[in-house]
Every structure is written in C-alpha cells, then in structure tokens.
Design brief:
The complex is a heterodimer. By secondary structure, chain A is an all-beta fold. Chain A has strands at about 5-10, 15-20, 25-30, 35-40, 45-50, 55-60, 65-70, 105, 110-115, 120-125, 135-140, 145-150, 155-160, 165-170, 175-180, 185-190, 195-200, 205-210, 215-220, 230, 240, 250. In chain A, the strands form six sheets. A four-stranded antiparallel sheet of chain A has the order 4-5-6-7, with no helix packed on it. In chain A, a hairpin with a 4-residue loop joins strand 14 (about 165-170) and strand 15. Chain A is globular and about 45 Å long. Chain B has helices at about 50-55, 95-100, 120-135, 140-145, 155-160, 180, 260-280, 305-315, 330-340, 385-400, 415-425, 435-450, 455-470, 480-490, 505-520, 540-555, 560-565, 590-595, 615-620, 655-670, 675-690, 695-710, 715-725, 730-740, 745-755, 765-770, 775-785, 790-800, 815-825, 840-850, 860-880, 880-885, 900-910, 915-920, and strands spanning about 175, 215, 575-580, 605-610, 635-640. Chain B is mainly α. Helix content of chain B is about 40%, strand content about 0%. In chain B, strands 1-2 form a two-stranded antiparallel sheet. Chain B has a two-stranded antiparallel ribbon with strand order 3-5. Among the domains of chain B are: about 480-565, no CATH class; about 585-645, no CATH class. Chain B is elongated and about 150 Å long. The chains are: A mainly beta, B mainly alpha. Chains A and B meet through strand 11, strand 14, strand 15 and strand 18 of A and helix 18, strand 4 and helix 19 of B. Chain B: This is GPTC1 protein. Chain B: Belongs to the GPATCH1 family. Chain B: InterPro entries: DUF1604, G_patch_dom.
Chain lengths: ~260, ~900
C-alpha cells in the first residue's frame, strides 16, 4: 500500500524498507543465492521471494522467519536482481544482466504464490496447506518465464519465447498473445481490461485483454538485453518503464 | 616388629614402624575385599583412565548429565544460530586427567623423546666434538646437534651392535686402493687424520700412515637414486636384489635438516670412522654391500648415474666442501650436453627428455587377402550406420561447425599434424578418412540428393545399386567409378569444386577430393587420385572414392537454401505415441509478420481450453470452470505419433500460411527422423525425386518402408504415411491413404485364413470391429491415383519388391498394392513368424489393413497387447473428447485404435465433410 518496499538483492537477502524515510526496516536471510523477485501479501503480513537457489520462500514479515520454502523449479536464473515491491511507479526496480529472471506474486488473498521460473514453467504454490509440490504447473511456455502477474482470477505470464499467456481461471481458458520478442514484463491495468507488455527491443504495448488487439504503443526507452519492469500508475493514467540508459520513462496512457 | 632392647643393635629393621597403638584402641579390621574401592585422584569412584577401563572414562556408568559425569551440551537449533555450530573433538569427551601430563592427550608442552636431553652415545658425542673442531666453520655441527633430533632407531642400534660405526659404510671392508689416492694427491684428504683432535694440517701424513694390511670400511654414502623409472613396478620398488639390500643407511634421514651442512658432517664423521676402524683393526665381512663398491657399479647402470659416479670419485677424497648437493655445476653441465644433442625446436610447455625413450615395438599389420571384406553385411541392415549419421548431424548442428583456428588452440588441443607443423616437421601423408567424416558427408550428399530434380531419377536409381554392390564387394569398388564416370562425366563438368568444400574439415581429404574432381572432369582414370595417400587400405580408398563421387555429383551451390528447409524433429521418435497438446500454438511465422505490421489481435492470439486445478480455483475463490473434468492444464490427447491430427490446427481462413509451414515441418520431421536405419536405404534412392514429385512419392516411399521394415516400427510407419500429407489437402489425402492401405477383402481372406490358426483370441477386439465400406473407396482411389506420375509409381513398384514385375508402371497404386499383397499373401506359411523374417513387415502391413475389414478376423498375438495398451489410451481419449464419441456412435469405446485418421476416414466415407474431420 505504499508504506513498505521490499527489495531482494544479490547478497542473498531480502530487505524491507521504508520508502518514505529510506530506512532499512528489516532484512531477511535464508536464501542460498540471489533474490530475484519479491512480493508482499495484501495485508503486509507475509512476503514471498523467488531466488536463484530455485526456491520460492514465504516469509513472515514480523518474525523474519521463512514460513515455507517451495522447491520444484528446476532451474532459476543465473543473474541476480533486486526487484522492488512497490505499488507506485518511480522506483527503477532492477538492471539486470539477464532477462531470464523468475518472478513471484501472491494472489489476492495471499493463499497462492505464483512463481515463474527460467525453467519455462509457472507454478502455483499453496500457502495454506503443507503440500510440498505445486498445486499446478503451467508449463506451456517454451522458454523461461520472465514475469508473472496475478489478478483475482487470472494469471498473466510473460515468457522469453515472446508470448504473453493469460490463464483465465474463471473461464478456463488460456490466451496466448505473441508479441514477437522476449517479454520482459507484463502487468495488468488497474481496471483489469488491458495488459501492458514490455518486451526486448520493442516498444511497450498495451494489449486488450479480451481480444489481444493493441491499444497503445509506448516507445522511446531503451531495452535491448535487460529485463526491465514496467508499471502502470494507480489510476492507469501513466505508463512507466525503466530503461537501460538508467532513466525511467513515463508516458501518458492515452497519448 | 617389636624387639627387645638388648637385641636392638643386632637386628636389622626393614621398613617403617607402624604407628604405636594408643591405649584402649581396637585393632582396625582390615577392609574386606568387596568393599575395597578404587578412587581416582579426585575421589571419584571407579574412574580409570583408558588403560584400565578400555576407553575414556567419560560417561562411565551412565553418569552423563549427573554430577559426576560430563554434562551434555544443550541442543541449539542450527537455524537461528548457524554460525555457532562447533565440531566436537575427542577432547570434549575427556576428563581433565586425560589432558594432564600423563593422560592420553596431554595439553601441556613437554619435551618429547626426540628432543629430550638424554645420555647420548659416547661415540657420537666424540665424533661430534671432533667434527666441531675439524669443520670449516667451527660451530655448525654444534648447531646441528642442537636442532637435529637425536633419536636412534633400532636399526642403527642393531647395526652398531654388529660392529658398525656411524659414518661408515656398510659392507665388507676394503683395502684402500692406491689408485684412488693417486689421481688426487693434492686434494685435501681428511680420511686418515688419525689422532682425534688433529687439525687440517695432518693430511699430509696420510700416506705415511697407511700400512699394507689395513682395510677400510666402505665410505658412507647416501645413495641418491636418479634413475628414471622404466619398469612397471610401483614407485621406488626395486625387487629383492640381495646386492642392493641395505643399500641405504638407516637413520640418516634424521640428519637431513640442513642437507648441505649435514652432509658435511657426515663426511667428516665418515673419515673419522675410517681412522678408528683402522685403529681397532677390525677386519672381515660386514653384511650387505657397500654402496659404492666397484662390483656394484651395475646398480647405477644408467647413464646419468654413471656420470654421477665419476663426480663422486672426484670428491671421494672427501674434502667436506662438496656435499651431495653441492656440485651444481656438474649437473648443469651434463644437462647442457644433452640439450646440445637436439637441434629442433622445442614446443613451449615441453622440455627435452634427458634420455631417449625406447621406441615402442611396432608390429606391422598382417597383409590382408585381396578379396578381404572388412565388414560383414547382413542383407536387411544394409545401412546400419545411417543412424549414426543423423546423430552426427544433430551433433554438428548443435555444437556448431568445428572451428579450425589453430591459433587460439592450446597445446592440448593440437592434433598430431598441427603439432608436427609447429615442430617444423614435414607433414605426414597419412590417411585420415574418419568414419564420422564419411557419415556426415553422406548425410550431406543425401540432402543434395533430395534437391536433385526428377531428370536424374533414372540415373540415380542405378547409383544406389552400384553403391550397394560396391558395399558387398569392395573389391569391385575400383571399377565402379568407371561406370560412374561414364554416367556422369558430362554432368560433372559443370560442377565446379571451387567453392564447394565438403571436406573442409580435413584439408588433406579435401585436396584429394579436388584432385578427384579434376580427374573426373578431364576424364582420367580415377585411380590416379589414390596415389595421394599410400597409407589407405584398398577398402578405405574405395569408400572414399565413392564418397567423393557422390559429393561431386550432388554438389549444388544452393545448399543453404536447402538446409533452411529442415528443422529438428519435434518429438522423440522412439515412442509410438506422444502426448500432444490438443491445441497447439500456431507457428509463429505469420505472427511475426503480424507483429511487424502491428496487427495485434486475432492474428497473434491463440485461445485454448485450459483446465485449472480445482484447488487453485478454490484458492482463487473462483468457481471451477470445468467442474467435472479430470484433466489439468491444457487438455492433452494421447495420439498416435504421426497422425495427421497431431499437426493440425483448427483451420481458419487466416492461418493457411501457418498450415503450410506446419506441413513443411512435418515433412522435415519425417525426413530427419534418425530412427530407422533401414529406411534410409530406400529413401536414399528416392529422395532426389522428392522435390519434383509431390507427396505421393513420400506416400509411396513410406509404404515401401513399411514393407521393408521389421515389424516393430510398423505402426509408426503408418503414422508417417499419414504424416506426409499436406494439411491443406488433408481430407482428400487422408482418404487416399486409407484407401491405399486398404486392399480388397479377398486378399485379407487369403492371408488370414491361412494364418488364422495362430491368431490370438482377442475376442474383445473382434467384437469391436466396425463395418466399413471398402469397395467404393478403392474405386475412388483408383481414380485418384490415375494421375500419378509414371516415374513415381514405377519407383514404388521397384521398391515394393524387387520381384514385382516392373511392367505395370501405369497401374494405380491400389491395384499395385493388391498385386504386391497377393504376391506376398499366398506365400504365407502357416507358422507366421518362422522362417521368413524378411517378409514379416509385409504381413504386418496387411494385417493392419485387415482391421478395416468387415469380417472379423483375429489379430495376431503379438499385436495384441499393443492394442490393449492403445486401447487404454484410446479410452482416455474418448473420455476427454466427447465429440469424438458421439460421432462415432456406432463404434465402441474400445474399438480398434489404429489412429484417429482411420476412424476419421471411416466417417469420412460415411459422408462427413473434411471440415468436420479437421475439427476433430
């Protein structure tokens, strides 16, 4: 909700920051390799993080302990990145040496962790039960999954094979949109009608969720090799994206 | 003990007097034995050290955790305090006594025996004193004495008891030869410095002091073994050579702390011993052999040591300035000598061997008889190697071409010729036609063959025959090129070899190849080429020539265009059935273009049915969209591997391009399949036609394959058959195939009546057979096949059976097949498997067709279990696909599962449109 910011770094730790004051609140140790992505639950009570040690960890924010560790991703990225959990755009999340970075997300109720891995699968982990294996493995991607987003009934996964797959749980459908180049980041608009797709060497594209048609295109930033995040502002007014030249670009959504 | 006072002085009292008893005190009762307990120094009961208890006293009598026992450390989870994990050693389980001075692990620093000052043997002491005086620097020996451990081993002690003196060699005493003294009279000699305490000035007296009958102990010498290891024994093992026994001086190693100075003292001591021995006049045989006696020269029979011996002799007079390690200049000089011998360049990273290694014995290979066949070929597996060739190709593709830049290669990756080049040697004219080379080339040329247009068909047909003949009779390989020459001389003339280097990896071979092409162009005899490499065997030469010829023949510069048409096989070929996602994402080619045109939307979107896990839905608070489905994820269908439907996507008007590309991939898949070795033989002949003729050829070919193949991969063949067709024409094609594979009924009757005795009782399958109208199918088939090209059909004919009469080129395929089947059918022996193994595939083929028949024939036992398995899959499929079921309502769920194409064709004949077919 904008009060906390969590970063994962190549120092194998997960750090919780206060973005307002810039103070470090807590750091979480327990990953064996770089922490590649992290996300927080809706109530800020739990964190989940994906690491290069092929595990997805569920953290208790208060105690700093690992609640669960999910193993099952065969291989995770070799390059570490800090990834911010920041609802507001403006923080460049990461500059990566590789676009193959997995990604973790809670679902709305923090009952499921959805993680995308370089092993080209998206796995849904159950936070409630003690099951060691994933609830479901979405292995349709042909290459590493770089970005995962979860809405109330959808799982959006962008893959390096150039496709954005949207698994609609309610309708029981899988929509696969081809964008041509490796997808680095995907995200929903806040109204849930569109999907913003960032891919390498291509402008950001705003795709209609239902039809797959392109509604907008945002270019000007540079993204050739790194996995860079893109975000939408809270009211879907602006589109933000990090660029390889070290800047963050903002576009007007409807421009 | 009490003694009378008068006797007191006479008595001798032993021991201490008991304390006087006090008045009224009772005598103490002795403690009974069972009550006598032992306590340790701290008053603890029954705690002994290891020597008594057989172990540490810790924890004795379950005292762990009690006051007397040791306290176990409290458990600390390693999760919180990871860093504090400490490793317990045995000390943690010991008592304090154990760690005290007399315990088993004393912690205090005490002087050990080695360094403890003890009474040194007097002789040594004296010698040391002597040496201290005599030595050039008078304090060094004392220093050595301080540092060196003075423990004497038992061997030394024994030796000493037997009369050996320290510093003296072991062995029989020898007379000091005047010869030794003569050559170096001017060198300082301490050896006979007689009276202890004599200074250096006494060396002049030496000669005078030497009486005739005095013998000397051999000089004490620490032999240094510098022999290179030549035998296969273990390191340092010399075998039991009595002459070498006791060669070394035991106990000497202790003195090696300061090698130079110690040796110095050794020498000094040795010389002193000489004097002593002479003084005492001890003569006679000590045991063992002196290390440097004359008769032991063979010990150091190697070159280096003999040289070293001479060096020894020089310093033998024993001036202490030369230790064993001292004369460095000798060694270096020797090294230079050897280095001078070699004039060539030395590779960096290598150094010259000091001694030339004995050349390995080489045995010349036996002379082969003239008509020797190195490989035995069985008839059915003619091209057993072609499997490897595909493997090889795949490897090549994956790893990239072999890079030839030798500059960046380290010396470990150099091959022999490159090393030779660096060393400045003349390159060997060696044969290097590796098998892999051959295979890959073959593969390449096979690809070229595919490109060949149909005008070469007739000639190409002759080629495989020739190659086969040459394979079977390698002796005839030399005359085969002549035929080729006659055939191809004209065509080859335009095939320039300037830019085409099929053997670029092997420059020598490439050279040979070029000259080969040259000679072919000029019409020379091909044999001239072979002069280039005399090391090749005749057989190899034949192979290579054949290879060259084909390479030259099929060379076309547009090879890149060709290679682009092939892709990797998508699925593993070994399995009959693959799990294919029912809906596959379309090929991305058209999407690519769509993306470029920014036409997102329908073009770039694929929509699939996707079944989420129930639990996932629950967790997401979403009703399960498919409440009664058991599948998860994309619905998968067990499909026959090469069913057309594996590769079919829903036909949309917009994605026809995709289909075409898909189709291409399929074809390539089937082409690139590395699985079936025997298949390539046939396809070899036909691939050149593949281009011009349409899929009918491939159809025919796969059919022929099915006939030629062993029974196991039969079903796959059927799939390939189905697979080869273009999806755009799928419906009609399907029909064709089905019709082709379904000869008339009397044929089957002919077959299966004869062989019905050994068919299994697969009654359930019997009952499941469905009626099929076959006769109209064949009619349509004949009409369809009428427009087949002659060449292809004749080709098929030829492949189908060599015995088939070639006079029916214009016959439609179905009829032809009938012929074939008839030809094979009646010949069926009642025992199906016995004997005619080569015919078996054909039978299988026929049997497969039998399933479409109306009359219910039994299946063979072998196929039976296979069917059962397939049936299971099929059932699953039926479960998942409801449409399938209701369309085939007349069909039981456990119907014959040949594949979906079969069933579809059934329905096809019953009037379903191809569109519907595709939907399924």
């Amino acid at each position: 909700d904008g009060n906390y910011c969590v970063t994962g770094g190549s120092d194998k730790t997960l750090k919780l920051w206060n973005p307002r004051k810039g103070t470090l609140l807590r750091s979480y140790l327990g990953h064996g390799y770089e922490v590649l992505d992290a996300a927080g639950s809706f109530d800020n009570s739990q964190l989940c993080s994906g690491s290069a040690d092929k595990t997805v960890a569920l953290w208790d924010v208060a105690t700093g302990q690992v609640v669960r560790k999910f193993r099952g991703h065969a291989g995770v990225s070799d390059a570490g990145t800090p990834a911010g959990w920041q609802p507001r755009p403006g923080v460049t999340r990461c500059h990566l040496s590789s676009q193959k970075v997995n990604s973790v997300q809670f679902n709305e109720e923090a009952t499921v962790i959805v993680s995308g891995s370089i092993d080209s699968s998206v796995r849904c982990w159950d936070c409630r039960s003690r099951r060691p294996d994933a609830i479901q493995v979405l292995d349709e991607a042909k290459d590493g999954v770089s970005s995962v987003k979860v809405s109330d009934h959808e799982i959006l996964a962008g893959s390096v094979d150039g496709r954005v797959r949207r698994y609609d749980l309610r309708a029981g459908e899988l929509h696969s949109d081809y964008v041509g180049s490796p997808v680095t980041c995907v995200c929903f608009t806040k109204d849930g009608q569109c999907v913003l797709v960032a891919s390498l060497a291509a402008p950001l594209r705003l795709l209609d969720k239902d039809t797959g048609e392109m509604l907008g295109e945002y270019s000007g930033h540079r993204s050739s090799a790194c996995r860079l995040d893109c975000v939408l502002s809270e009211r879907d007014v602006h589109v933000g994206c990090a660029s390889e030249d070290g800047a963050v670009y903002f576009w007007d959504l409807v421009e | 003990m009490a003694a009378s006072s008068d006797e007191e002085e006479d008595l001798v009292s032993y021991g201490r007097a008991l304390p006087a008893l006090h008045e009224g005190e009772r005598l103490k009762k002795p403690v009974p034995l069972q009550e006598q307990t032992v306590k340790d120094a701290k008053g603890r009961y029954q705690r002994f050290h290891g020597a008594f208890t057989g172990g540490f006293s810790a924890g004795y009598f379950n005292t762990v955790g009690t006051k007397e026992g040791w306290t176990p450390s409290s458990f600390i989870s390693s999760r919180q305090k990871r860093a504090e994990k400490n490793v317990l050693g045995p000390e943690d389980f010991m008592d304090e006594e154990d760690l005290s001075e007399f315990g088993i692990a004393p912690k205090d620093i005490t002087t050990t025996e080695d360094f403890a000052s003890k009474s040194k043997d007097r002789i040594k002491e004296k010698a040391r004193q002597l040496a201290g005086i005599v030595a050039a620097i008078p304090g060094t020996t004392a220093f050595d004495d301080l540092i060196g451990p003075s423990k004497i081993t038992i061997g030394v002690e024994l030796l000493r008891k037997m009369g050996w003196k320290e510093g003296q060699g072991i062995g029989p005493r020898i007379k000091r030869k005047p010869r030794r003294q003569k050559p170096d009279p001017q060198v300082k000699v301490y050896g006979c410095a007689l009276p202890p305490g004599l200074s250096e000035g006494s060396e002049d007296e030496e000669d005078e002091y030497q009486p005739e009958n005095v013998t000397f102990a051999p000089k004490d010498v620490m032999p240094v073994d510098l022999t290179p290891k030549e035998n296969v024994h273990g390191l340092g093992y010399k075998g039991l050579d009595p002459t070498q026994a006791l060669c070394g001086v035991p106990g000497r190693e202790h003195l090696n702390l300061f090698p130079g100075s110690c040796e110095k003292t050794d020498d000094l001591l040795g010389d002193l011993r000489h004097t002593k021995g002479r003084k005492l006049g001890i003569t006679g045989q000590a045991f063992g052999v002196g290390a440097l006696e004359e008769e032991d020269d063979d010990i150091y029979a190697t070159e280096t040591l003999s040289k070293y011996d001479t060096v020894l002799k020089d310093e033998e007079p024993g001036d202490g300035l030369y230790g064993w390690t001292a004369p460095k200049q000798y060694k270096s000089k020797k090294k230079f000598e050897t280095e001078v011998k070699y004039i060539g360049k030395i590779l960096d990273g290598f150094s010259l061997a000091s001694k030339a290694s004995t050349p390995n014995k080489t045995y010349p290979p036996p002379d082969l008889p003239r008509n020797y066949r190195p490989v035995h070929y069985f008839r059915p597996v003619i091209a057993a190697g072609s499997e490897n060739c595909h493997l090889r190709k795949a490897l090549e593709e994956s790893t990239g071409k072999l890079e030839n830049d030798t500059t960046q290669q380290s010396r470990h990756t150099l091959n022999a010729s490159q090393r030779g080049e660096r060393l400045g040697e003349t390159a060997l004219k060696g044969p290097a036609p590796s098998v892999l080379e051959y295979l890959s080339e073959k593969d390449r040329e096979r690809l070229k063959e595919v490109r060949k247009a149909s005008e070469q068909q007739m000639k190409a047909k002759m080629l495989p025959q020739q190659s086969q003949s040459s394979r079977f009779q390698p002796a005839a390989a030399s005359d085969a090129p002549h035929k080729w020459q006659m055939f191809w001389g004209g065509q080859l003339a335009n095939a320039g070899s300037s830019d085409f280097k099929p053997f670029a990896k092997n420059p020598e071979k490439q050279k040979r190849y070029e000259s080969f092409v040259q000679s072919l162009k000029q019409g020379q005899k091909v044999e001239a080429v072979d002069n280039l490499d005399p090391g090749m065997t005749e057989w190899e030469r034949g192979r290579e020539q054949e290879e060259f010829f084909r390479a030259a023949m099929f060379y076309k510069s547009s090879s890149s265009a060709l290679s682009s048409r092939f892709t990797r096989a998508k699925y593993e070929d070994d399995v009959d059935k693959v799990e294919v996602p029912r809906d596959q994402e379309n090929d991305i080619d058209d999407k690519e273009t769509a993306v470029k045109m920014k036409m997102f939307g329908k073009l770039t979107r694929d929509k699939f049915e996707w079944h989420p896990e129930k639990l996932l839905c629950k967790r997401f608070n979403v009703p399960d969209p498919y409440p009664d489905s058991s599948i998860v994820g994309l619905p998968k269908v067990k499909r026959d591997k090469y069913s057309v439907f594996n590769f079919l996507t829903l036909t949309e008007p917009t994605t026809s391009v995709t289909q075409a590309t898909n189709e291409r991939i399929q074809q390539n898949n089937t082409l690139d399949k590395p699985k079936k070795p025997s298949r390539w033989d046939v396809s070899d002949k036909e691939k050149e036609k593949k281009d011009s003729i349409s899929e009918f050829i491939s159809l025919a070919r796969s059919k022929a394959d099915a006939q030629q193949q062993p029974p196991a991969p039969m079903t796959e063949e059927c799939r390939t058959e189905a697979n080869e067709t273009l999806p755009s024409e799928v419906a009609s094609e399907d029909k064709d195939q089905e019709e082709e594979s379904r000869p008339s009924m009397d044929l089957f009757k002919a077959i299966f009546v004869s062989s019905s005795d050994e068919k299994s009782s697969s009654s359930e399958e019997e009952s499941d057979e469905e009626p099929q109208p076959t006769v109209p199918v064949i009619n349509s088939e004949t009409t369809k096949q009428a427009d087949l090209p002659d060449s292809s059909s004749s080709n098929v004919q030829e492949i189908v059976a060599t015995t088939a009469d070639p006079g029916l080129p214009l016959l439609p395929v179905s009829k032809k097949e009938l012929d074939v089947a008839e030809e094979f059918g009646p010949r069926l022996p009642p025992a199906f498997y016995s004997g005619r193994s080569c015919r078996l595939p054909v039978h299988n083929f026929c049997i497969r067709k039998e399933k479409h028949k109306k009359n219910r024939e039994k299946h063979r036992t072998k196929r039976d279990h296979k069917h059962k398995k397939e049936k299971k899959k099929k059932q699953k499929k039926h479960k998942t696909k409801g449409k399938h079921k209701n369309k085939k309502s007349e069909k039981d769920s456990s119907s014959d599962t040949e594949d979906s194409s079969d069933s579809s064709s059934d329905i096809d004949t019953t009037g379903l449109s191809p569109k519907e077919l595709l939907r399924r």
